[in-house]
Structure formats: C-alpha cells, structure tokens
Automatic annotation (TrEMBL):
It comes from the Bacteria. This is Heavy metal binding domain-containing protein. Pfam families: HMBD. GO terms for molecular function: metal ion binding. It comes from Flavobacterium cauense R2A-7. The lineage of its organism: Bacteria, Pseudomonadati, Bacteroidota, Flavobacteriia, Flavobacteriales.
Length: 69
C-alpha cells in the first residue's frame, strides 16, 4: 500500500514539474515582436528575447544585448 501511495505522489510531482517547464518555455517563445521595436536578449541566455528593460525568465537579469535581425 505504501509503495502505491509513494508511486502516485512521485507521478504527480513529475507531471506538475513538467507542466511548469512547458509554461516557462511558452513565455520565452511567445514574445510579441513589433518590427519597429528593437529586441534585446539576455547576456547569459541569448535565446530569451524581449523589449529593453524586460527580465530574463531563466535568471532574472535585464535584457541588454541587442538582437540583430
């Protein structure tokens, strides 16, 4: 009985962690892009882009590196 409960708790934990990772990934890839605005990237995570002054969703640093189109 204990094994069944532990297995169920482990499965719930793994599924909830996976959903959190997908949610974070959506935030980084669904950044709206206006052609008139310059885009900036995180110095540590260049795949994370956004407007100047935004924060990196992975490490919290300001987006400062200008993205060349």
């Amino acid at each position: 009985m204990k094994t069944l409960i532990i297995t169920a708790l482990l499965a719930i934990t793994l599924v909830s962690c996976n959903d959190k990772a997908k949610e974070t990934e959506k935030q980084t890839t669904e950044t709206p892009v206006n052609s008139s605005e310059k885009m900036y990237a995180c110095p540590m995570h260049p795949e994370v882009t956004g407007k100047k002054g935004d924060k990196c969703s992975k490490c919290g640093m300001d987006l400062t590196e200008e993205v060349k189109k």
